[in-house]
Design brief:
Number of domains: 1
Structural class: mainly beta
Number of helices: 0
Largest sheet: 8 strands, antiparallel
Number of strands: 17
Shape: globular
Helix content: under 10%
CATH class: Mainly Beta
Strand content: over 45%
CATH topology: Jelly Rolls
Length: 192
Amino acid sequence: MGFEDGTWLNEPASWRMAGDRLHVVTDEATDFWRETHYGFTRDTGHFFAVRAAGDFTAQVRVRARYRDLYDQAGLMVRVSSSEWVKAGIELSDGVPMISSVLTLGRSDWATAPYGHDAGDFWLRATVVSGVLRLQVSSDGTHWPLMRLCPFPRAASYSVGPMCCTPERAGLSVDFSDFSVGAPAGKALHDLS
């Protein structure tokens, strides 16, 4: 399953599909966040979702040029407006950080410096038996773990590329090599 099966949550004004590439330019003041620290809820980010029935592995390649605070692009897995995770690169204090936000009623936020080219990277999400594993790759071959956490069990999930710019409009993002299929079934420390 790939882009051909997708639909928008918060369709951006500017986007196009060309072969296996989805190009998006973000709208102004877009974000996904619930309550924690800031006290507000935002559900306005751009999310191009396909439906995965039961457990799955999804991956995508992301190319973007981050410029302003909170510019972000990556992958989202969503059960509902209050149960989701987003992961990718997010600009924080002038530095591109590998970032994930897990929301189960309220959002958390975990970041770490990313030691590779933040403008071109890969993400993988695997959901199996109520557990979510997120992996990041600089080359699409070697997949270090970035997060392992409980995640709601559901009959189906929405999964796909997401991008947001809470402080501006105009982040240009190219998503490619998107796939969703059966869980990879790899051991936790198998980084292939």
